[in-house]
Amino acid sequence: MKTLYIILVATLKTLIYFGILMLHVAYATYAERKVIGHIQLRLGPMVVGPHGLLQPIADVVKLIFKEDIIPIKVDKAIFRIAPLISLSAALSTFAVIPVNKNWVIADINVGLLYVIGIAGIGTYGIIFSGWSSNSKYAFLGSLRSAAQMISYEVALGLSLVGVILMAESFNLTEIVNKQGEYWYGMFLFPQIIGYFVFVVAMLAETNRLPFDLPEAETELVAGYFVEYSGIRFSLFYLAEYLAMFCMSALATICFWGGWTIPPVLIKALPVLGFVPGIVWFLLKVYFHIFLFLWLRGTLPRYRYDQLMAIGWKVLIPLALFNIVITSIFKYYL
Amino acid sequence: MKLREIINKIFLIEIFKGLFLTLRMLFSKPVTIQYPFQRRKIYPGFRGRHALVRDPFTGDGKCIGCMRCTTVCPSRCIYIKREKTENKMIVTDYVIDASRCIFCAYCVEACPVCALVLTEDFEYSDYMRKNLIFNKEQLLKNWDEFASKWPHDVYFNKFWQPPGIDPSRWPKTKREQKPIPIKRFIEIKKEESDESSR
Ligand code: SF4
Ligand code: SF4
């Protein structure tokens, strides 16, 4: 009976979480078009609904009713599975991400490792899709993606080691609680190098500009999902935006103190203490999403060798340096 | 200088400058004109759909069949059929292939009697290429359509008196060209509505 109850609660939680997440993804696409539009002095979507607010819904309807084309020469089984791998990997990461105090589906002790590991599995979806598509554009895109993931996953992991050292835990809730013990309330300040490395690696990890080489529209059309259409295409799209949210949430939890705000601020303005934690969490996540869009609107795409050089020659040494510094401080203070 | 470059490189000054530029743009006013709902003001000298001016006194075109526009047209898209009677040239058909026209308005400048005009009308896209080859009847109808929408009482086209050429070298009719009074043809409008109901 107890097991049944636990399963039921977990399912319910998952469904609610899933619904809210999908809504967020839908409106992230809208926000992206609006932000990039306004950066380029355009308006973005304006026609469907007031200020184009219903545009994401129209897009979803359109994508669902599009013809699902499977080219003749593709490897059909893998071609069908690939988007599902990407999507399920992106979705599973959210199982351990706490959005508020005790608001989490699975509070596991290796949460951080789990997130990084599962995020890495998403790459398989990309590689499979590129391989099975039997198209040179898709294949090149997936090869690039594989190389990029390998180099940036290392930097991503290393940048988080500093946080782990300071929090002395892999548990995401624990990491947030630990940050509240410091007067500044965020690991952002002592871990500024780590944060920088994390942000750059997170852009590369989610294939966003300026590191969107796997899909580079100007050279590879759409890279690994060039042969996909209709609902399968939108699954890749979904996975990309979910990965953005996942990385934003990770940055929020590990560096920005999750749902807490710095104790100094609460001392200065006690009113802030009554704001529910979820509000702070969402604000911080939205800031990171905005950062993604902002960078996309600003920076041009890096060349492939530059991308590799930044990864191996700058980010990894920086992350290692950060670990050494953090360990020294941790040991002597 | 050297130190400055190093600092620039380490703190990514250039990237931050770029980010602030885009942030400023984010909060400035967009330049988009939402076309079907909002329209841009059309300036004098705009070159749009061709029309043959309907003479407000005779009710017919003013063309005298002198062939100057055919000669001057760089893309050779004007075709004129004419018949000679004892003392008068009659233009039986006048065709402009708008799909080939480059809108240079040379024909308008060359015409000695100001019979041609490129109107301010630009929404005449069509599904059929055939419909973009205007014959005389259609060209006159284009004028009526344009005239019925023209807000003022008189109309004068900028290219009827070619800019950059000394007025003494214009033909007399061009020099004496006055803004023409607009006469709105109600019976034409009825015909139009017939067509649309068809
Ligand atoms: S505008 Fe130029 S190209 Fe067009 S019909 Fe007149 S002369 Fe020919
Ligand atoms: S130049 Fe004028 S008058 Fe001469 S043929 Fe052309 S439209 Fe007619």
UniProtKB/TrEMBL annotation, chain A:
Functional note: NDH-1 shuttles electrons from NADH, via FMN and iron-sulfur (Fe-S) centers, to quinones in the respiratory chain. The immediate electron acceptor for the enzyme in this species is believed to be ubiquinone. Couples the redox reaction to proton translocation (for every two electrons transferred, four hydrogen ions are translocated across the cytoplasmic membrane), and thus conserves the redox energy in a proton gradient. This subunit may bind ubiquinone.
Subcellular location per the Swiss-Prot or TrEMBL entry: Cell membrane; Membrane
Topology class, membrane: Multi-pass membrane protein
Reactions catalysed, as given in the entry: a quinone + NADH + 5 H(+)(in) = a quinol + NAD(+) + 4 H(+)(out)
Organism: Thermodesulfovibrio obliviosus
Enzyme Commission number(s): 7.1.1.-
Name recorded for this polypeptide: NADH-quinone oxidoreductase subunit H
Assembly notes: NDH-1 is composed of 14 different subunits. Subunits NuoA, H, J, K, L, M, N constitute the membrane sector of the complex.
Transmembrane segments: 6-30, 77-99, 111-131, 152-170, 182-204, 235-259, 271-295, 307-329
TrEMBL record, chain B:
Record keywords: 4Fe-4S, Cell membrane, Iron, Iron-sulfur, Membrane, Metal-binding, NAD, Quinone, Repeat, Translocase, Ubiquinone
Cofactor annotation remark: Binds 2 [4Fe-4S] clusters per subunit.
Sequence intervals crossing the membrane: none
Pfam families, sorted: Fer4_7
Record has Cell inner membrane as a keyword: no
Organism name: Thermodesulfovibrio obliviosus
Full protein name: NADH-quinone oxidoreductase subunit I
Gene transcribed to yield this protein: nuoI
GO cellular component: plasma membrane
Membrane topology: Peripheral membrane protein
Location of this chain's protein in the cell: Cell membrane
Catalytic activity from the UniProt record: a quinone + NADH + 5 H(+)(in) = a quinol + NAD(+) + 4 H(+)(out)
Quaternary organization: NDH-1 is composed of 14 different subunits. Subunits NuoA, H, J, K, L, M, N constitute the membrane sector of the complex.
Binding site for [4Fe-4S] cluster 1: 63, 66, 69, 111
